[in-house]
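Sequence design from tokenized structure. All designs in this work follow the same two-part layout: the structure record, then the generated sequence. An example of the structure record is given first.
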């Protein structure tokens, strides 16, 4: 069983190897720091060291002509064990180093200062150290400068990890922004549907509704109000002219109504009007007696918006009841025949109205729903998926959601809007309007597929390939796994088109695509870029040798004769494969294209494997 110290060392080594820097060629991005350190501290030697299990390896060295030492001789091993800056002013006066072979012999170290370098998760990987052949003091300013330089080296060591982390952060922010936009679109759609439903209700009810803005300009007469007055709203008409223009009289039907007594004027002044009686005399019609109720309207912050009045015709109560019954029958007929679910649910979650579409879509009779709760009438599965929206609506907030339902042997995407029925600030129930969005969602899916697929072969197109290639590179970097990219062309494809026609050429492309997909793994991405240009993204391919084996399989798969429309064709392909242990998009694409060129130059029907960036 490993000790805590052993476990810590294994974690440190794992973080070191994950960087992929050991035994890599010299890079100026690190050498500039050792050059800067030798100049800044006036020392002959500066090193960027990485401490491996049994050795100390120098990613950059200034003043030494060798690149590693045994770990047992490494001053830097003491620094990472300390996990803090190690300063030895005079090695001959320090019992740890007085007899050290690098002190008594070359390079004759008399002074050492090393600042540990860490991984992004805090593991000490090595040091930035400076060495002098004479003793010296090392003050606070020197220590601060060495720490600052080491921080810059540390950022360079972790560059790829930091970039990947930042990329993930940006992707997360983009995802959050997209979600916010979708939620906003959903809310806007719900508001539009609410307004449409409100307009439909206003134009359907037999109650006259009139409204004015905060300045007293008439803005709304609904259908019933227009019928009462025989006129529409005139926004240019002053309040003083309303009684004469609209033939308004008192309850006795004889006394002209004063402008200040008009119910809408009273409501605009802030009065809560309740069943105020008045009479309308329209030329050529019998007098109509009305009861008007209304109030002022205010915005969410209390600002005045105007006033609204609803007028009930009580001239002939029986006739009114008959008209209401007829209107209700119209509403029922319309509701039962529109291609949507329409229902009203009260505050106890009981159905008070449901149209016949519920029986068509769910097999539930309307008569079996009325008076029963949503849970009892429709079942636990139906209620559970809608409970939150219903409860939110009872709290006074409109809701919208889409649910995929499977009933009566059919799958539907049901888009539902829940609108609170509010009277005098109190929720009375819920209006439910649901439409079948199945075709719309399927159309959206088809559009997405068309945008990302090649219409001829069904393979991912160039746009989809570029997205998947970028994702594959990100996965390879996160997992420190190699990646390969193959470019493929059909040899002499133009001759096939010219001699046999485009129909046969298209058939060759489809069969070529099928064989590529059947030859590689399901996790690999086969795409068509254009014409006879194809590409394959091969993940977790261990070596260039494995790439050659894959290329051989692809060439053999293509060489088998193509039997197409009575033609037996011999088809071959030229392939260029790029392989990289640390893939970069541009380098791999360039290498794959170079390999394809070499294969064509070599006579076609062959493959060339190149190491990207080599």
């Amino acid at each position: 069983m490993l000790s805590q110290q052993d476990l810590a060392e294994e974690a440190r080594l794992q973080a070191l190897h994950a960087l992929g820097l050991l035994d890599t060629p010299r890079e100026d991005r690190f050498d500039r720091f050792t050059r800067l350190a030798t100049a800044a501290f006036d020392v002959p030697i500066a090193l960027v060291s990485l401490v491996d299990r049994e050795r100390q390896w120098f990613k950059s060295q200034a003043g030494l002509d060798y690149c590693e030492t045994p770990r047992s001789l490494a001053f830097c091993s003491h620094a990472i064990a300390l996990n803090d800056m190690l300063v030895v002013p005079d090695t001959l006066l320090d019992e740890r180093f007085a007899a050290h072979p690098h002190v008594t012999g070359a390079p004759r170290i008399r002074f050492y200062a090393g600042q540990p370098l860490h991984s992004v998760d805090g593991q000490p990987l090595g040091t930035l150290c400076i060495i002098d052949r004479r003793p010296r003091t090392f003050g606070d300013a020197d220590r601060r400068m060495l720490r600052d330089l080491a921080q810059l080296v540390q950022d360079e060591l972790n560059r790829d990890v930091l970039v990947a982390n930042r990329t993930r952060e940006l992707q997360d922010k983009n995802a959050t922004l997209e979600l916010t936009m979708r939620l906003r679109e959903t809310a806007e759609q719900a508001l539009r549907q609410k307004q449409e439903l409100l307009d439909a209700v206003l134009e359907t009810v037999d109650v006259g509704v009139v409204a004015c803005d905060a300045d007293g300009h008439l803005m709304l007469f609904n259908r019933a109000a227009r019928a009462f007055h025989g006129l529409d709203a005139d926004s240019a008409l002053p309040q003083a002219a309303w009684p004469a223009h609209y033939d308004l009289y008192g309850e006795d039907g004889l006394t002209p109504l004063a402008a200040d007594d008009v119910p809408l004027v009273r409501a605009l002044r802030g009065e809560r009007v309740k069943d105020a009686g008045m009479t309308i005399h329209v030329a050529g019609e019998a007098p109509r007696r009305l009861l008007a109720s209304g109030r002022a309207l205010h915005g969410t912050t209390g600002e005045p918006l105007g006033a609204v009045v609803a007028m009930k015709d009580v001239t002939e109560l029986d006739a009114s009841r008959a008209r209401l019954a007829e209107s209700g029958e119209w509403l029922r007929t319309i509701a039962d025949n529109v291609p949507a679910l329409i229902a009203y649910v009260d505050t106890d979650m009981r159905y008070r109205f449901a149209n016949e579409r519920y029986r068509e879509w769910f097999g539930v009779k309307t008569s079996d729903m009325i008076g029963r709760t949503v849970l009892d009438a429709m079942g636990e599965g139906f209620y559970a998926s809608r409970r939150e929206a219903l409860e939110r609506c009872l709290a006074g907030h409109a809701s919208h959601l889409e649910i995929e339902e499977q009933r009566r042997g059919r799958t539907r995407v049901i888009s539902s809007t829940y609108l609170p029925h509010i009277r005098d600030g109190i929720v009375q129930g819920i209006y439910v309007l649901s439409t079948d969005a199945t075709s719309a969602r399927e159309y959206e899916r088809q559009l997405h597929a068309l945008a990302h697929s090649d219409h001829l072969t069904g393979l991912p197109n160039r746009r989809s390939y570029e997205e998947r290639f970028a994702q594959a590179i990100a996965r390879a970097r996160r997992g420190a796994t190699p990646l390969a990219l193959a470019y493929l062309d059909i040899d002499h494809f133009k001759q096939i088109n010219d001699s046999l026609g485009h129909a046969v050429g298209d058939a060759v492309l489809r069969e070529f695509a099928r064989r590529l997909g059947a030859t590689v793994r399901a996790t690999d991405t086969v795409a068509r870029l254009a014409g006879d240009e194809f590409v394959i993204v091969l993940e977790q391919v261990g070596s260039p040798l494995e790439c050659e084996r894959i290329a051989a399989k692809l060439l053999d798969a293509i060489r088998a004769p193509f039997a197409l429309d009575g033609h037996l064709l011999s088809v071959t392909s030229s392939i260029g494969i790029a392989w990289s242990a640390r893939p970069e998009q541009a380098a791999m694409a360039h290498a794959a294209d170079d390999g394809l060129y070499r294969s064509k130059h070599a006579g076609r029907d062959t493959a060339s494997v190149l190491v990207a960036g080599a």
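The mean pLDDT is 87. We note this feature because it recurs in several other targets discussed in the main text.
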